[in-house]
Design goal:
135 residues, alpha+beta
Length: 135
Amino acid sequence: LREAEKREELEFKISETVLHQHTLRSPISATVMKIGVDRGEWVRTGAVVLRLVNVSRCEVEINIPATEISLFRASTEVVIQPVVGEPGTTRRAEIVFVSPMADEASGLVLVRAQFDNQDLAITPGSTVEVRLPGK
């Protein structure tokens, strides 16, 4: 009886280990946007299994005429407001990237700014208005 209990305990531990090896855990708190495989399907190491998105911190991309780029520097703060949605919703965003080159065809410079969106007041992917504070 004792041998049977020991065997069952070992089998249980082996099953737990196998389950743990087949369980995906995310290093961040996020929402699953797309699952790239079906249940039971084999996946190669390094292949994309699913796509996650964390919408608590968002990024907005804007294109600015090269003549106005002197107003936009890294760490500069801008105000963003959704074009559609709740009218009083505004956020302060910090510029994190200013492209060193202008697009040859349009003459516009790419600028990226990040903002906190913990309350999900601004829907990711929506159109926003961006302005400098006080303007």
